[in-house]
From TrEMBL:
Coiled coil: none annotated. Signal peptide: none annotated. The keyword Repeat applies. Pfam families: MORN. Residues 31-47 have a biased composition (Low complexity). Keywords: Repeat. Residues 51-62 have a biased composition (Acidic residues). It comes from Euplotes crassus. This is Phosphatidylinositol-4-phosphate 5-kinase. SUPFAM superfamilies: Histone H3 K4-specific methyltransferase SET7/9 N-terminal domain.
Amino acid sequence: MKEMDTNFDLASRPTHEKGSGYPDELEDLPKGSTLKSPKLSKPSESSTDVSFEDYEIDLENDSSEREEYPQEVMKVLKKADEQALENLMKLGKFRITSNLCSSNGEKYKSYFGQLDSNEKRNGRGIQVLKDGSIYEGEFKNGKHNGIGRYISATNVYCGHFYHGRATGKGVLQDLKEDAKYKGYFKEMKPDGKCTKIHSNGSKFIGEFSNGVISGFGKYEWNDGSSYSGQFKFGLKEGKGKDIDSKGNIYDGQFKENKYHGKGFLRLKNGCTYKGNFVNGKKSGKGVCQWPDGRFYDGKWEDDKMDGIGVFKDKMGKEKKAKFSQGKMIALLE
């Protein structure tokens, strides 16, 4: 399996702030869910791969009564996709220790896994969070840190965690949006280079900022259209090349998803325009050529010839004229 980059800029990584939307630990499980602990097999050395194959729960030597996940946890797991469930650590039937481990008076009713000499969560473990979501993976100083997997009713994330947050390289399946992200994340939001794949086949490869497409990238839609260029706040903004589902091609400047500024447009029927655009329409100075030989070099307004320009007809005869709303109103020569 390909190794993942574990280099972090510690100064720039976020800390866990209250009210950030990431769930806190579960203080108490539902009634009837106080369960005995299975024995943990000794994990191998920590790996940077997004894999949990070296971490299993040893149920063979455990003779205690086996019980199911708490009902709230099962609801979460049922909402996760089948692939995510297949990739879970081999849990058997999930049980939580009845002999509660304590650290500074805190009782880990929501956790079983490895503890250090101070009874702090360090190593590999599984934790049920207050909202019923689950984290499984590596802990450091009591927090999610290293490689882990987070499962909630709306998200399944597998990858790097730092200081309790999903930050670094990883894969996120957004169950609500029905899309999959693969790349770099900050606080469980795509941030940096990332690939987004929709369930309908549409795909984006490029840059994100705080969960929003921003920077350079390429979007390919399932209807055959595509855009390659610059984005800002999720919209086409700056220099780019757009091909629509009909085969029309535009190469030039964009503003808020519209042709805006200098650009070159080639329609499927062979007509071309090179010049200025405003809010998606030909406006200002521009040159248009038609497949039948017609030619116009002059001023445009609202997608129509408007102002003074040179027009060449099908016979090749050139005229300098004044136009208004696409119609010639006066010859100037």
